[in-house]
From TrEMBL:
Residues 354-477 form the Transposase DDE domain. It comes from the Bacteria. Residues 20-111 form the Transposase InsH N-terminal domain. InterPro entries: IS1182_transpos (IPR047629), Tnp_DDE_dom (IPR025668), Transposase_InsH_N (IPR008490). This is Transposase. It holds the Pfam family DUF772. It comes from Halolactibacillus miurensis.
Amino acid sequence: MILKQTEMMLSPYSGIYDIVVPKDNFLRQLNELVDFSFVYDELKDKYCHTNGRNAIDPIRMFKYLLLKTIFDVSDVDVVERSKYDMSFKYFLGMAPEEPVIEPSSLTKFRKLRLKDINLLDLLINKTVEIAIETDVLKSHTIIVDATHTKARYNQKSPKEILMDRSKKLRKAVYTIDASLKDEFPAKPTSNELKDELDYTQKLIDVIEANQTISEYPQVKEKMNLLKETVTDDIEQLRISEDEDARVGHKTRDTAFFGYKTHLAMSEERIITAATVTTGEKTDGKQLQSLIEKSMAAGLEVETVIGDAAYSEKANIAFTKGKNMALVAKLNPSVTQGNRRKTEFEFNKDAGMYVCKAGHLAVKKARHGKKNIGKNQTNTYYFDVEKCKVCPLRDGCYKPGAKSKSYSVSIKSDNHSDQAKFQETEYFKEKSKERYKIEAKNNELKHRHGYNISKSSGLVGMQMQGAVAIFAVNLKRILKLRG
């Protein structure tokens, strides 16, 4: 059964909060900013209302997840802190003397209550709604970009995952008391996951038995991570390291294994939309969805700012059809062509290209259909007999080839209009705003643990993204509100 928590539990000690949690405390401000009853409204159908024991209030459970993301700690550590941190207890709606939940409850909450909920759009839309109501979101511009998150297991086998976490825990112990090594269990020699799980549990038991060592922060943190890996992701450990994660490319020479989060953000640095995909997905294909989601959240979009990845033909046509300005530079292959300028030059009088040896093309042909797929091309054909004996043929003419041609892409009307637009002062000024989203990506990764996924699977990554974006948006709203 579920009982809705409408107010803080009555307690003779409640007055403590007025002393130790001042009005300018971040969590107190957060409680005043957000009406968290929307969590109950969304999740009430996930509970049985007629049978069973009373469930922990879903609002409190959601707030635990929010605290976990804001302070980037494990389930065990966020519950532990809620025992003594009065600002945590106040935020959670607890009486000062009230006992805390079992950390394992958070695992069940994620898996059972948040399953099949479109949490990502729900939480982003809620923050955009709050931003509009508090009058801090006024712009009609969104900035788009994608950030990557490495898979938690990073292409390691389940056994390697446990071995790595155990190794880090042992190292943390050795820095305090190397003699404890003699009490540790023998490392397994088989390749069986079960044996590694048994060893992991024995290792944890030995360290926990030594209360002095286990209370050191560097030991406690790594031990909690190891325990959470075993309890929260035991199902994934038995199946695969991460079946959904894919290899993506940050640059031509650097790759990662994991996921991508595609973001749209207002000029006030409030995220208005997001989609989470596997790592190999291209950025440009997500633009239309980001625009539509931002508009559905309540934002009037007039300008879209992004890098060259978003300037593909379909996106130019889409934004043009909605009377939006797309501030994204065309790919150089569209504006300049893929050939070096010194190889072929266009003779305007003859209407043909001339090669570097001075030979004029003898004919041209147009290929492709207008407004369908890729741009049409004009192909210019040269006299191959001249090419065979040309002194500059090396690197230009392939011996034995029956023809020599040079193709030039014909810019579509959309490409031509975009090329002109990117030379305007408005385009140049708006382009300077793009750095803001890179700073937001950095905040997500380095302050809220978004550089590595917390669990395996696309669903888990979407859930992590939802809570992380909710947290950074609320922080930003509070800052702008002053």
